[in-house]
Amino acid sequence: MDNRYQTYRQVEINTTNRGKIVVMLYSGAITFLNKAKIYMEKKDYSNKGKFLIKALNIIEELNIALDMAKGQEISKNLRSIYLFLERYLSKANLENDPVKIEKSIDILEKLKSAFEEILTNPDLQEAHQINKREQIQNSIRKII
């Protein structure tokens, strides 16, 4: 039973639209940064650090997941933004500066909105369906 569940979860993960995953990651990073900011203002430095690290881990994963060959200029620009955010949030942590966290949240919210726009644009729906079919077929091949 457990093996079938694991197989189902793997197919679900492999067939989820990558754009939706990116949007979820942005949402997670934003949530963690908001919590870090609240704890920073309360001078609860332990929890501030815990949530900053979670946000930084998400940003690092977004950076690592970039396909530089396919994405070319867009991936290059996103990488620059992610590296900037990593440095900027580290500085916010050292300086206990909630304004830097807020500015980082603003950047992530703009990126999230851009990805949401791409996902909801009706002109791109056909491409999403083709991509999803290919992902499902590849996942099934791996399982069989």
Question: What is the mean pLDDT?
Answer: 84
Q: How is the main sheet built? A: none
Shape: globular
CATH superfamily: Flagellar protein FliS
What fold name goes in the CATH topology slot?
Four Helix Bundle (Hemerythrin (Met), subunit A)
CATH class placement: Mainly Alpha
Rg value: 18 Å
The H-and-E topology, N to C, reads as: HHHHHH
Short characterization:
By secondary structure, the chain is mainly α.
Describe the structure.
This protein has six helices and no strands. The chain is mostly helical and 144 residues long. The protein has a single domain, classed as Flagellar protein FliS (Four Helix Bundle (Hemerythrin (Met), subunit A)), CATH 1.20.120. It is globular.
Q: What is the secondary structure topology, with strand pairs?
A:
Elements: H1 2-15, H2 18-41, H3 45-64, H4 68-95, H5 98-120, H6 125-143
Keywords for this structure?
single chain; 144 residues; mainly alpha; Four Helix Bundle (Hemerythrin (Met), subunit A); 89% helix; globular
